[in-house]
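> call design_seq(struct)
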């Protein structure tokens, strides 16, 4: 199975996937290098994930996309409203919905787009699992996780996500780990896509 992993980060979503051929797209050279260290068998490309999807989507059987989330985040929006010295007001980044609609309309394989629970009512109805939104062409069923330890220190986040970043310098480790999808969630969603080829239903 050929998998496209967009906005790959350090690979939290794919950490527990087995027996798949993965192409990972990450636009930050440093983060892409860390991903490659953890997953040496994956093909890692430093590129704009949004543009790569448009040009290469037909080459894959399964696509996972995790577009940048800050412009959709409750926290980012509240800081802009209540403390403008910290954050300016910004437009929500509509590339998120561009990709959802594009995959709905053009892609024949299984796909999922992951993002934070937004401060506004979603424009396209998602599944809600593990404190995140997921848009997909298969059913994602599961329990909401109200304690992700998202605001923990680096050591706790490393334990939670299963990544040791101690040898890396010059990066914002806490931000990278906070952006990292929990490996268990990534595996659950992947299993939902392929557990039953006819109904594609997964329950926890």
């Amino acid at each position: 199975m050929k998998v496209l992993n967009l906005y790959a980060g350090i690979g939290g979503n794919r950490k527990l996937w087995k027996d798949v051929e993965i192409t990972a797209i990450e636009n930050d050279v440093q983060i892409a290098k860390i991903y490659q260290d953890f997953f040496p068998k994956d093909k890692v490309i430093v590129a704009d994930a949004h543009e790569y999807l448009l040009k290469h989507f037909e080459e894959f059987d399964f696509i996972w996309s995790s577009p940048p989330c800050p412009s959709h985040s409750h926290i980012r929006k509240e800081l802009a409203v209540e403390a403008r010295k910290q954050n300016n007001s910004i437009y929500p980044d509509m590339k998120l919905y561009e990709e959802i609609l594009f995959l709905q309309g053009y892609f024949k394989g299984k796909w999922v787009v992951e993002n934070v629970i937004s401060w506004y009512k979603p424009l396209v109805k998602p599944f809600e699992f593990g404190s995140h939104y997921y848009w997909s062409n298969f059913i994602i069923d599961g329990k909401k996780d109200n304690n992700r330890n998202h605001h923990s220190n680096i050591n706790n986040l490393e334990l939670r996500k299963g990544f040791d970043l101690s040898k890396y310098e010059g990066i914002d480790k806490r931000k990278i780990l906070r952006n990292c999808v929990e490996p268990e969630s990534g595996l659950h969603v992947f299993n939902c896509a392929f557990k039953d080829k006819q109904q594609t239903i997964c329950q926890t």
